[in-house]
Amino acid sequence: MVSVIQPTHALNKNIRFATRAKYVQIVQKGGFQKCHRIRPFHMPRTETSEPAQQHPRCVLAFLAWSTGSLWHGLRAYARDAGWYLISPEHYYGPPKPSKKVDGVIVLPDPNKPFNVRRTFPKAKIVDLVGNGDLDADGVVSIDHEKVGRMAADYMYSLGRSHYLGLNLTDYNMIVDTRIRAFQRRIEEIHTQQGSAFTFGTIHYDGLVRNNSARSAKLKRSISEAIEQTNQPISVFCPDDSTADVFLQEVLSLGYKVPERIAILGVNNNRSFCELSQVPLSSVDVNLSKLGHTGAELLDRYLNSDPKAPKTIFIPPLYIEKRASTEQITSDDKIVASILSYIKDHYMERITADDVIRDVHASRTNAFVRFRKSTGHSIGREIERVRLENAKSLLASTDYKIDVVARLSGYMNTSAFCRVFRKSIGKTPTEHRKEAAQNYI
Question: What's the rounded Cα separation, in Å, for the pair 196 and 207?
Answer without folding.
Answer: 33
